[in-house]
Specification:
The protein is an alpha+beta fold and 303 residues long. It contains 13 helices and 14 strands. The protein is 46% helix and 21% strand. A hairpin with a 4-residue loop joins strand 6 and strand 7 (133-135). Helix 4 (59-76) packs across helix 6, helix 11 packs parallel to helix 13 and helix 12 (262-278) packs antiparallel against helix 13 (283-301).
Length: 303
Amino acid sequence: MLTSYVISLKNYNQILPLLNKIKNYGLNPVYIEGVNGKKLTYNQIKENTTSFYAKFGPKSAIGISLAHIKAWKQFLSTTDEMCIIFEDDVVFEPNFSKKLKVIFDNLPKDFDLSFLGCVSCQSKNNKKINKYFNKPTFATGLHAYIISRKGAEILLYYIDKKINNHIDQIIMDLYNKHKIVLYSLNNLIAYQKSAHTGKSTNTSKYPFLINKICSFFEVEKTIKLDYSLTVSQTRIGSFNISTMTFIFFIIGIILSICRVNIRISSLIFLIISLPDILIMKYLDIVLFYYIIFITPSLISQNF
């Protein structure tokens, strides 16, 4: 029975239904306690990252990286030649066990890592290997993948204590440099729930109003627009920077170019942020975004 490692910030009892579900698929699920990046001390971050990423890497992304490293190390402590790794927000396609068997029967022998599910990986430019597998031009998301013993050893060599980006981006960089052999499926059999619901440690719930509107739109199957816009890219101090942050800054620039009065700009921001202010949550993030939003107008007034 193939072992599957299931990463979660929740405790064992909370994800027991998922573990049982995976067991029913004919796999041996092993719980891996996740790493809450937001609770890491600066020294803990510094010990596991490059000096630049220690200062500017999103803490949640660092925690996710450490959790996968933890899973790889536990896998390598066994004699198994391969394993599956899941994150606890994984969603399985119907008849998953049957489809998984077909995948294993046709898995390229030289693989280091193969996605069972991924994000932004269904490109027409992917190089098709056979009926089931392709070499992706791009892929993110580590909610479901098969990894070989050699693959785990390679990733640990390049990533352990040297985290310098989101872990899936590091893996893609190694793949593009031909350091690791990576495959994806022509037809994915697993998806990421958090990319569909927007509930992730690596995204922001602010601004509620815009996120709510964006949640009605999908950028690809099971990937909602609000997730894509608010997933963290970098960090300034304790604040994560996402595409949404840049959108607010660009809107601020447009308003300053149009010579919109700061009071009017502030009113626009207040309307956007009103639901967040009323529930009295994320007020520090609201203030940070207000500074981002209003700074172009403040600068233009002084010239």
